[in-house]
Each structure stands twice: as C-alpha cells, then as structure tokens.
Amino acid sequence: MGAKLKGSGGLSLTKREKRVVKDCLQDFSSSSWVQDEALELYIKSEIFLQVTSHFKKVVRRGITPALRDALMQVGPGEASQQLLFPLFAEWVLKEYKDEIANYREMVKSVDLRLPHRWYTMARSMKRRFIYHSGPTNSGKTFNALQALQSAERGLYCAPLRLLAMEVYDTCNQQGVFCSLITGQEKLIVPGANHTSCTIEMASTESPVDVAVIDEIQMIGDPQRGWAWTRALQGIPAQEIHLCGDSSASSLVRQIVEDMGEDLEFQSYDRFTPLEVEAEALDTRGGYAAVQRGDCVVAFSRRDIYAIKDAIEAETGLRACVVYGALPPEMRRIQARLFNDPNSGFDVMVASDAMGMGLNLNIRRVVFHTLEKFEGTYVKPVSVSMIKQISGRAGRRSSEWEKGLVTCFRSADISYLKEALSVPLADMNTPLAGIFPEFEHLELFASQVPGMSFPELLVKFAEESRLDGKYFFCKQDSLIEIAMLLNDLPGLSIRDRYMFCTAPVNTRDEIATSYLIDYANKYCRSEPCSLDIKLVEKPPETIEDLRELEILHQVTSLWLSLELRAKKEGVFVGREDAEAAARRIISLMRDSFANLSKQQQERQLQAAQKLRNQQMPGLSRQLHTSLSRRSRFSERQEARPAAALAGV
C-alpha cells in the first residue's frame, strides 16, 4: 500500500472508483466471516469495528493501482473480502500488536473456577453485604428498598420484569427518579440516579451506592442461577442487600468469603400466622366451597380456565386469572381487580406465577394439585415452591388476620403439611449457577477455529473447569436454537449468541419461526420489522386469546433483539412494535371484560360436572381429566429458559 490518495500526493481515483472501493471496504467491515477470521488473529469483537474503521482509512489513503483494479473487477462481496483480508492481517499484526498480545495472554484456558475475578470494577471495591432472610410476607424486601431509595445512586435487580416495573413505579411515585431496564425496554428517566432492572440486565460497569438483589435463593436455579451469581459477584456497589429465604445463606457466605468481603444477616418472621386447613375442598362440595379472597393454584393454562369457569358457575363469584403466558401488564391488571373490593372480582385462579412479583390480598391458597408437568414428566411440586405460594396468603396489609392454605384433593393434604413443616434452616441451596459471558465463548472460539456454534457450546461446557460451589446452567434451549440457525451464513459468533439467548420458547413453533425469520433477515442485512398481523376485534374465546399471547411473546422477542443488535438499520420500526404491544394489551383487556358472557355455556357445563361430584370417584375423574389436559398445555406453553428472561 505504498501509493497514497490524491490530497496526500498519491493515486487519484474517479468518482466511480471511489464509490466501489468504499462499498468494498464497508462490506469488509460488516462481514461476519471477516469478524470470525479476525478473531483467529486475536482481534476480539469488542474492538473489531474500531480496527476495521482504522483499516478502511489506511486503504483509502494508500491504495495501489493493482488493488484498485482488483476491487473494481470483483466489487463488494466474498471475493473482495478474501482479497483484502491478507492485507488486513499483515497490517493489523503490526498496528495492534499490543492489543493482540494482551488478548493472547488472557487465552490460556477455559477456567471458570474463580468467576468473581471476571469483574474488575467490583474487585477494586470493598463491598458490604446484608442478607435479609425470611419467609414470604415477612417484610424483608421492604427494609432493603428503603435503603435503596435513601441512597444517592441505587440499583434494584428483579427476578421478573413484573417486579422491575413495580419498583420502577413505586420509586417514581415516591419522588425517587428511577429508570427501567429490561430485556425488552429501556425507559431512561432524565436526572435519575436509580435503576430498576431484570437481573440479567444488571450492569457490572456502572458503580452505585446501594444495590438490592431480590430472591437470592434463585442463585441455584437450573436455568437462570447464573444471573444471580453474576450480580452477587459483579455489581459495583458499596452496599448490597440480598433478599430471599435462608436456603442460600451458607452458599452466599462461602462466595462472599472467597471475595474477601463483609456479610451480615438480618432474619425476619411472618407478620401473620399461616394455617393449613384440615379438610380439602373435595370433602366440602369441591369448588362450590371457594369463597371471597381465595386463590386457586393450578399449573396449566387450560386447567386455570376450566377451574375459573367451574367456580363462577357454582358460586356466582367472578374470578381473575394469572399465569406465565399473560403479559406482565395484564397480570398487574388482574391483580388490581382482585385486590379492589369494589371491582366485582373476588377470586383468583393462578399458576405459580402468582408466587412472585404481585401483591395479592389472599385469604386462602387452594392447590388444585401438587403435581406439575416438567417438559417430559410429571413430578411433585417442590417444597420451596409450596412454601413460596402458600406464603402469599394473609398479607399483612390485607383485611385477613391470618393466612389459610389447603388442597382440592384430600390425598394431597399430607404432602402439603409435610412441605410446610420443613424449617427454612433445613432447606439448602448447595450450588450456584454459572454460565459464560459472551467474552468467554469468544476466547474459547479463538482456540478452536472452524467449529460450528452448536459444537462450540457443547465443547465449552465439556472442557470448562468449575469450583465445587458452582454448576453449569442448562443450555438445552441455546443448543436447540443454535442448531436451527447453524446453516445460516453471514452470522458472526456474537450474532449467534444474541439469537440463541433471545427470549423465545422453542416449544412454540410460531414464536420460533419468527426468530428464524428475523435471523435470516439479519444475516442478509435486510430491514426487519415486527411483521405481525393483529385482529381488529377482541378475542371472544380462550383459544383466540392464546393467539394474542403468542403475538405478545413475538413482540417481546423482536423488542429484545432490537435492543441488542449490533447492526444498524436492520431492526426497524421500534415505535410501531411498541404500539403493537400496547394494542395487544388493549385487546386483551377488552377480551377479559367480555369473556364471562362468551363462556356462559361452558360455565353451565362445568356446574353440571361439579354437581355430579357427589357420585363416588367423580372428583378424581375431574382432577384426572384436568391434569391430562394440563400435560398437553404445558408442552405448548412452558416458559423459555433463563438465559432467555428478563427478563
């Protein structure tokens, strides 16, 4: 590249030549193939754009006649990329030798035994931890949030988008300016020094005075535990409040000791007593025995609506519903209706989604069943989940002086009592989840060139070395998505990581097809809008409502990808997508308002079935029928795994 462009005493280019050279260089810098090849030279993706921008200037200023003629002949594309890359390699090894040497030094092994060392900013501080431990309805989170609001700079890390929204609203209503950051949205409030976020979005680069990590016991969650481990070790805060039950206390103590930091414990008891009713509902007329303030818990969408119909037909009480596939906004609306004594809605039918993120004035929790379908098999509901859900009864600020809990089936009462009798001190979270940051995968990829992304994920997990306190979080859904996208050309390792960690339920064929379509357009740098079609009128059936729920999941997927995408100008139309999300919520609200009238016939049929429960064995048949449908619906409606949340 000895010659120089005109203006520096060198080679002069025509307008057409300048345009073609510019297009070739732009194509080179945006190529996923070039990015992956550069990684093998130890040019990490974090500085790739900076390096190629510098390279483009060097080429334009020093282009030779031979290079000009070659680029004019082939134009932008694979041929020009392969033509330019040897020149790029020779140049970058000289110009960026220090950066390359530093990166080479980092790449010695895949060693995850000391994950706290990944977070240099947090390690430069002497942090103090306060562990607020206690059961549900003990006020443990209240004190932590008070400390957060009193701080000059604060960060709240929520297990759910719903909780992040709740704290965001509360802080701003109380005069503490607070921004909201989730996987789907960034609402930056001018002048705000506080942020409420889903835990996966917690920054390890922005120092704060006080941070709150909620539901710390989820550090042991098989899919999402890594996010709590990362927050615990990486948030740069002077003071960090951990809220949850005591099951993770021993594990947290070990991790904090490894970091050489201080930890204190504050224990809390329930404000109101919690009692188990001796008799199940099947001995008292079934769902005819449901009363105002009750919350019936089931574990599938189909069961929830069947139970809602049965209760409304048999008791005359109107029931709200809450389950995981409902958008957070709709869950909040349903919770407000249930809590409002003048709304006309006196009963809640919910999934385990009610166990976290909603303040509910529940008199009694009724478990429809204590078995839950887990993808391929049915297993008993865990002790921790039973405690979490049961503890929602008898909220301190409600009208109920105590909380009650029971089951629909008499056969479940003994297991319920057994689970609730287990002391929190005896419950133990043995290991903390861990999962690689993108940079770790990138480091590993530089050592195994040519390996496909699915193979890379599997190989990384096989060769990673972990300390005895940690386990590698499940990555089944990531590998499944990686396989679906494996044959798509033009996606860099970072691009593939982005799509594989997107919030999509791979059991849902519609949502997954949208993900594949978005990835196809992204790899071709084509404009990618939300591209969904909404109905004009509110759904009139539960089945039609399900279609809206899926479209909302697709909208959340698109919004998440738009926030994370590195290519500019591909995900277009964010305002339209946000408007679509609002329209979906509006349609759902109208649908819920009209659903009772549309379900009149179903309610009458459910009432007839309940009246027949007086016949021996029919109660069991109803339960078996509902559970059978539950297994089908769980397959269709299970929520996506964590790396894919908060999401």
TrEMBL record:
Catalytic activity line of the entry: ATP + H2O = ADP + phosphate + H(+)
Helicase C-terminal domain mapped to chain residues: 273-442
The organism's place on the tree of life at top rank: Eukaryota
Co-factor(s): Mn(2+); Mg(2+)
Keyword Zinc-finger: no
Comp. bias intervals (Polar residues): 612-627
Ribosomal protein in keyword set: no
Top EC group: hydrolase
Region described as Disordered: spans on this chain: 608-647
Molecular function GO labels: ATP binding; hydrolase activity; RNA helicase activity
Single GO BP term: mitochondrial RNA 3'-end processing
Entries under InterPro entries matching the protein: DExH18_N (IPR056377), DEXQc_SUV3 (IPR055206), Helicase_ATP-bd (IPR014001), Helicase_C-like (IPR001650), P-loop_NTPase (IPR027417), RNA-DNA_Helicase (IPR050699), Suv3_C_1 (IPR041082), Suv3_DEXQc (IPR044774)
EC number(s) on file: 3.6.4.13
Swiss-Prot/TrEMBL keywords: ATP-binding, Helicase, Hydrolase, Mitochondrion, Nucleotide-binding, Transit peptide
Cellular component GO terms held in the UniProt record: mitochondrial degradosome; mitochondrial matrix
PANTHER family: ATP-DEPENDENT RNA AND DNA HELICASE (PTHR12131), DEXH-BOX ATP-DEPENDENT RNA HELICASE DEXH18, MITOCHONDRIAL (PTHR12131:SF28)
Protein name, per record: RNA helicase
Taxonomic lineage of the native organism: Eukaryota, Viridiplantae, Chlorophyta, core chlorophytes, Chlorodendrophyceae
UniProt gene name: SUPV3L1
